[in-house]
Every structure is written in structure tokens, then in C-alpha cells.
Amino acid sequence: MSITIKRVLVTGGAGFLGSHLCDRFMKEGWDVVCMDNLITGNENNISHLIGQPGFEFVKYDVTNYVHVPGKLDLILHFASPASPIDYLEMPIQTLKVGSLGTHKALGLAKEKKARFLLASTSEVYGDPLIHPQPESYWGNVNPIGYRGVYDEAKRFAEAMTMAYHRYHKVDTRIVRIFNTYGPRMRLDDGRALPTFMAQALRGEDITVFGKGEQTRSFCYVDDLIEGIYRLSQSEEVDPVNIGNPEEITILDFAKEIIELTGSRSKIIYKDLPKDDPQVRRPDISRATSILKWTPQVPRREGLEKTLQYFKSIVP
Ligand code: UDP
């Protein structure tokens, strides 16, 4: 009796989340094709997989016509610059990968009769007027603001995904990802967590934007990957929030990192970037009821694991 091995394509597979997904699907016994143009991804994130049977890396920009020889059962579309600094520096690529890249990846899913899972984002809720954010909330996004390039590309990507589902009957999934952290985050991606950890480890001032009263809710990467894996194996077509509802102000978060690292760094205040959401916290009722998923890793434990990683790479 022959066992058919399933095969997944991960776009953005050398990125923070993409590389953890490659790991997870390899562990589940799938063949994995990892595609990345390496503009924000890094081959170091997948170096342990290169040469393993069933793993392939293709350096490619998914905004161009995509051809993958052989069968595909699942496409995970995770390619995109994903931190505010990245999409400020690469606004056009961010718009292209969310729009043209999603179109190409959906076309490939249709061709291969593969399931398609879109990495969407809490940014579709913009600076939210409803708190916490349920999937039914339509959001408060400034289309022409600096964050608009990411937010609107992801909103377009969701619309395109649903159109392919409704019109072409592609089997689709949409995950709305909230702030996630863990090993393989880029030290210089400008996000609060890697920035604060690097500053604390180097004894530099910790740069809190605004008064630090804005909130975020941070999810450890292992929890997020478990949620995405479950969604990929479920029958749920409508968007599902995956994130950790434990909410903290950015000022308290900075203090927590100073305490955890035992650093002598001082907090300094800088201007709040434009359109920075005031609050963010997922309503995870749907993930809990549909996927039987809740986050398992407390922030303290997740931060300690992440700190070990950053200690190994901070110059
Ligand atoms: N932030 C900060 N100092 C930094 C980087 C970020 O105070 O050095 C703030 C930022 O203004 C935002 C929050 O931390 O309110 C989270 O920012 P991040 O870039 O991590 O992700 P976002 O959730 O805004 O996409």
C-alpha cells in the first residue's frame, strides 16, 4: 500500500512565520516547497531544512507568474513585508505582494485544485473603534495613510480570496493574525519587541512612541502556528482571528522587558507614528469554538524564550 504524501507551498517561507510553518508541515510529514524572494525573509531561518528530504527552497518573487511543477494540496500565502518600517521602506512591493501576489497564488491554487490559506492581519481593523475586535468588525483604515499600503493590500487580498472562493470555487481559508513574537523575528524590523530587546541587551535607551498608552496583545509564535495549522485542517471559510487576547500598554511592555533582561536602560519617549492604532486585542471566540484553540504560552515564558534567541544574535 502506498501512502500519498501531501505537498504544501509556503510563500514567504523564509520569513518569521513562514519558516515556522515550514517546520510544522515538515514535522507533520508533508513535502514542503518554500518560496521567498528574500527581501525581508532570510535563508538562515530555513538553513536547518535545506537538504532534508521533502524540502525545497525556491528563490522567487510571487508577484510574477508562479509555476510550481508537481502537485500541491495546500498553499499558505505568507509573503509580505510585515512590520511598519518594512512597509514604509517598501510601499510598492507591499502593495504588489498583497494584491498581485495573492492573485498569482490563488491562480495557482485553482490550477492545482489546492486549498489556499491567506495570511491576513489585525491591520484590516485599522485604528479600531470596536474593542476587542471580532471578525464581524469592518475596520477603520486610512487608505492613503502610511500604513494603508499594508492594510489595504491585505483587505484587497481578503476580497480576492473570497471572490476566488465564490466564483472559482477555490477552497479558501483566511487567518487574521495579531501581533506575534518569538525566535526568528528580525532584530532590525523596527517592531516594539525586537527593538526593546535589542536596546535592553545593549544598555541603550528604550524608545517608547507617544506616551506608551497604546495597547497591543502579543501571541507567542508556537501558539499562532498551532492555530494556523488547525485552521488549515478545518472547513472554515470565513476569516478567523488568531492572537493572544492578553492586552498590555506599550509602556508596561517596555518595563516588562527591562525587568526581564535586568537591563539598566532608561525609557525615552519619541513621537507616535501616524495612524498608530490606539488599541488592539483579538476577540478569539470563533477560534475557540471552531478550532478548539486557545493560546497556551504565558507572555513571561514566551518572552524568556525569545530573549534567549535575541541574546544569541545581538551583536
Ligand atoms: N513602538 C514603540 N517603540 C518602538 C517600536 C514600536 O513604542 O521602538 C510602538 C508602536 O508605536 C506601536 C507598538 O509599539 O504602538 C507596536 O508596534 P509594532 O511596530 O511592534 O507593531 P504594530 O502593532 O504597530 O504593527
What would you say this structure looks like, in words?
Helix 5 runs parallel beside helix 7. The chain has a domain of 217 residues: 3-Layer(aba) Sandwich (Rossmann fold), CATH 3.40.50. It has 315 residues and is an alpha/beta fold. The strands form four sheets. The chain has a seven-stranded parallel β-sheet, with helices on both faces. The protein is 37% helix and 17% strand. Bound molecules: uridine-5'-diphosphate. Uridine-5'-diphosphate (UDP) binds next to helix 5 and strand 8.
Give the CATH topology of the domain at 7-181 and 220-245 and 281-296.
Answer: Rossmann fold
**Which stretches are low in confidence, meaning pLDDT under 50 for 5 or more residues running?**
none
Helix/strand structural class: alpha/beta
- In N-to-C order, the SSE pattern is EHEEEHHEHEEHEEEHEEHEHH
Name the CATH class of the domain at 7-181 and 220-245 and 281-296: Alpha Beta
Number of strands: 13
- Average pLDDT across residues? 97
Topology of this structure?
Elements: E1 7-11, H1 16-27, E2 31-36, E3 55-59, E4 74-77, H2 84-89, H3 91-112, E5 115-121, H4 148-168, E6 172-177, E7 180-181, H5 192-202, E8 206-209, E9 215-217, E10 219-220, H6 221-232, E11 240-242, E12 247-249, H7 250-261, E13 267-270, H8 285-291, H9 299-313
Parallel strand pairs: 1-2, 1-4, 2-3, 4-5, 5-6, 6-11, 7-10, 8-13
Antiparallel strand pairs: 9-12
Bound molecules: uridine-5'-diphosphate.
In short:
With 315 residues, this protein is an alpha/beta fold.
